Amino acid sequence: MQQVFKRPVSLKDVQTHFCPGCHHGTIHRLVAEALDEYGVQQRTIGVASVGCSVFLYGYFDIDVVEAPHGRAAAVATGVKRARPDSFVFTYQGDGDLAAIGTAEIIHAANRGEDICVIFVNNTTYGMTGGQMAPTTLVGQKTSTSPYGRNQSKDGAPIRMAELLAQLKGVAFSARVAVNSPKNLMDAKKQIKKAFRYQVEGKGFSFIEALSACPTNWGMNPLQANERVGSEMTDYFKLGVFKNVENL
Amino acid sequence: MSKRLFVKGNEAVAMAAIEAGCRYYFGYPITPQSDIPEYLSRELPRLGGEFIQAESEIASINMLLGASATGVRAMTSSSSPGISLKQEGISYMAGSELPGVIVNISRSGPGLGGIDASQADYFQAVKGGGHGGYHIIVLAPSSVQEMYDLTLLAFDLADIYRMPAMILADSVVGQMKEALVPHGRPDTLLPAKDWVVRGKGDGEQRVVKSLYLGDGELEAHNWKLHAKYRELKEKEERWEEFETEDAELVIAAFGSTARIAKTAIMMAREAGLKVGLLRPITLFPFPERAFAALTQRCKRILDVELNTGQMIEDVRLSIARDADVFFYGRPPGAGSLPTPEELLEQIRKYC
Q1: pLDDT tens digits, residue range A161-192?
Q2: What is the reported pLDDT for B1?
Q3: Rounded CA separation B18/A244 (Å)
Q4: Measured between CB atoms, which of B64, B72, B199 is closest to A45?
Q5: Do residues B30 and B108 share a domain?
Q6: Are A81 and B56 within 8 A, CB to CB?
Q7: ipTM score of complex
Q8: Same-domain status, B252 and B229
Q9: Could you say which of A9, B36, B60, B169 would form a disulfide bridge with B173 (CB–CB 3.0 to 4.6 Å)?
Q10: What is the per-residue DSSP string for B161-199?
Q11: pLDDT tens digits, residue range A82-97?
């Protein structure tokens, strides 16, 4: 009998702490598959951020450095410059990357650091209990926007994939989702492409992965999954916003 | 013998960093330390190293964190307001047990303050300037030669104890030019860096982190860090004594202030006054034993600082009630650097 599906080598054989219906586990798997695909697990240094994804080292069988909140792109810069032969990726949430870490991500991207950034956008601060994030949709109620996000006071949600695509140092920028088999297959393709760019030394690559957060959205997993495919993708369009190979 | 050079203190720091094998520097411009990044931006690329002018002090300390986690020798430098911004990263480096050298050519404050020589960052440097309760190694050079020597030492101590080490100086020592005799790194036995991230290869996963959530883990981690601070106190206290043998009054001063005090002491000795100097070279660990021993024979200490009184707290703790401690301070700012004559006047008050 032929085995056609198995756990990626880069993932540990453990259960995650993620809530039911959360997309982190799926995105972890896609990242691990990409590490396996290019055979870079043994020379990979992952940079964990602060938020639900901080336990990266508990799930990936790779070396990991834990960064302070928002600073993953700066830590990754130090790692990659000191060890240019290593494969370096960060894995950050929306509060981490698009609020407190905005300066670090923009400048790492602008310098064209040869790293990959996995940005998980679930429109909320998950670990701290569902507060308003820079990506919270207008009108969305959270524990710190109880009347809904008000654009005139809170600003509009930031579209990071489009924003970073403007910078010359960025080789690849795409937004993906894992809410349906079709989107998941495309996400897998884009993550692999982003990783290939680092393997080939093409520069900074950025993947924004939309994720459900049923617990903090007050939804069941199916409703949350549905929201990703409707409300979220209406505002956060899926697609490739920058690809140096097409320029 | 090496040739004598005539260089600035800041340049001596940069030269020593290169001699120490540091090939990675991350920083942000701020007066009065910009000679350091300027020197290294020129020299490091020639040596196959990396110089990054970061977007902020916060980014530079985190680049240092990342580079250090891979095992290389790396450095950042700044001045007081910038060092404040780095405190988050320094706390994480202390928690993650990462070596690294941080240079503070401090300026006056609080807030934007001014660019004049200052010793007002003493508390921030020696008491753990960020959150969570930790210490870093703090070395206080008072000459251009010491800027060089102590930078070499800082890299070694940081590696031996797996913790950040700081050079705490000011513009008097940083901007001043005097003779320097550069020399090679000391032949210090350094521990193997068997903890660095490098890509796991066929080995076990390695993680550099400061998060400990398991029952009792963080408490144990804090005691482990504390044990290192005790070991530092036992093994690494450094100080200079000048004319203390028969002194009836000893000035306690570090860095730039100690230089001025030395001149004042020489003037006082000429006038027949029995005055000496005890200059802490390591501010953490503070040379407690030197002060304790001194007060067996000298009962009057005059603490002099460019602030309203910070190191004096450690002086008092070191001597218990064995001596009287007096204070003369000039809060930092334009025109506040004391002259030797001014210090002589203070000496006369207590002799």
Answers
A1: 999 999 999 999 999 999 999 999 999 999 99
A2: 52
A3: 37
A4: B199
A5: yes
A6: no
A7: 0.97
A8: no
A9: B169
A10: HTSEEEEEEEHHHHH-EEEE---PPP-------TT--S-
A11: 999 999 999 999 999 9
For chain A, helix, strand, coil in percent to 5 are 40, 20, 35
Identify whether the C-beta of residue B86 lies closer than 8 Å to the C-beta of residue B102.
Answer: yes
- Closest CB to B65: pick one of A43, A48, A78: A78
Look at chain B and report how many structural domains it folds into.
2
As a whole number, mean pLDDT of residues B212-230 equals 98
Domain containing residue B176: CATH number: 3.40.50.970
Where in the sequence is the domain holding B312, given as residue range(s)?
Answer: 240-350
Contacts of A109 in chain B (CB under 8 A): none
Burial class (CB in 10 A: 0-12, 13-18, 19+), B7: buried
Give the residue-averaged pLDDT of B248-270. 98
Query: CA B11, B15, B18: angle at the middle one, nearest 5?
Result: 145
Q: Do A65 and B92 touch (CB under 8 A)?
A: no
Number of domains comprising chain A: 1
Nearest to A78 among B67, B198, B210 (CB): B67
Domain that holds residue A114: 24-238
**Residue B339 sits in the same domain as residue B324:** yes
Question: B205 and A66: CB-CB below 8 Å?
Answer: no
B177 and B298 housed in the same domain: no
Say what the pLDDT of residue B322 is: 85
Q: For residue A228, tell me if it sits in a domain.
A: yes
Same-domain pairing of B63 and B139: yes
User: What's the gap in Å between the CA of B11 and the closest CA on chain A?
Assistant: 23
Mean pLDDT of chain B: 97
Regarding predicted confidence, which is higher, B333 or B235?
A: B235
Interchain contact B204–A (C-beta under 8 A) = no
Q: B326 and B276 in one domain?
A: yes
CATH classification of the domain holding A39:
3.40.50.970
pLDDT-derived band of residue B321, with 50, 70 and 90 as boundaries? confident
Is B211–A81 a contact, with Cβ atoms under 8 angstroms apart?
no
